[in-house]
Amino acid sequence: MTTRTLAVVSAGLGVPSSTRLLADRLTTATVAALRERGEDATVEVVELREHARDLADAFVTGFPNAALRAAIETVTGADGVIAVTPVFTASYSGLFKSFADVLDRDALTGTPVLLAATAGTARHSLVLEHAMRPLFAYLRAVTVPTAVFAAAEDWAGGEGTSQELAGRITRAAGELADVVTGRPASARPADPFADVPSFEDLLRGNP
């Protein structure tokens, strides 16, 4: 059985957050859809709130530190990506955009991506189409047709989901699974700095 890697990017700020809750629902549904298609899955979650300072440092220095570099490699090396952001000021959050800004433009070329967003009201649902989809088109990712938006009223009884939201989650997860299983399993990208000697070795005269 082929094992696929799913990278889940959550830009929620709170703990817990509706953004992470939606990300978890989408992940569970996608893993189930992959298994229905005869493939297993491993899941790696990137919580962007844990990398807020790392992202700021990367903008100032021009280089990601080890923790942020690992998060970037998790996303760029995955067979499929689930990307979920809260809506701030009628668009994706600044934290979400900051992470997109540190990705190489070609790093997600051809990668299947499921887009999702959360907000307090359904009036922001078009963020998925006028903001998120163009962003990932610029990154040359392959976004699945169904994007999932969850407003406050979609969460029935806290962690439950409305019938409409559950249906969107199932449909989007199936679309992502279809695209992922139609592609060869990806390998982790090689680290271009893997063979670079450390600064300490250079000081010792060991090239």
From TrEMBL:
<dbReference type="GO" id="GO:0016491">
    <property type="term" value="F:oxidoreductase activity"/>
</dbReference>
<protein>
    <submittedName>
        <fullName>FMN reductase</fullName>
        <ecNumber>1.5.1.-</ecNumber>
    </submittedName>
</protein>
<dbReference type="InterPro" id="IPR023932">
    <property type="entry name" value="CE1759_FMN_reduct"/>
</dbReference>
<dbReference type="Pfam" id="PF03358">
    <property type="entry name" value="FMN_red"/>
</dbReference>
<keyword id="KW-0560">Oxidoreductase</keyword>
<keyword id="KW-0285">Flavoprotein</keyword>
<dbReference type="InterPro" id="IPR029039">
    <property type="entry name" value="Flavoprotein-like_sf"/>
</dbReference>
<dbReference type="InterPro" id="IPR005025">
    <property type="entry name" value="FMN_Rdtase-like_dom"/>
</dbReference>
<feature type="domain" description="NADPH-dependent FMN reductase-like">
    <location>
        <begin position="6"/>
        <end position="155"/>
    </location>
</feature>
<dbReference type="InterPro" id="IPR051814">
    <property type="entry name" value="NAD(P)H-dep_FMN_reductase"/>
</dbReference>
<keyword id="KW-0288">FMN</keyword>
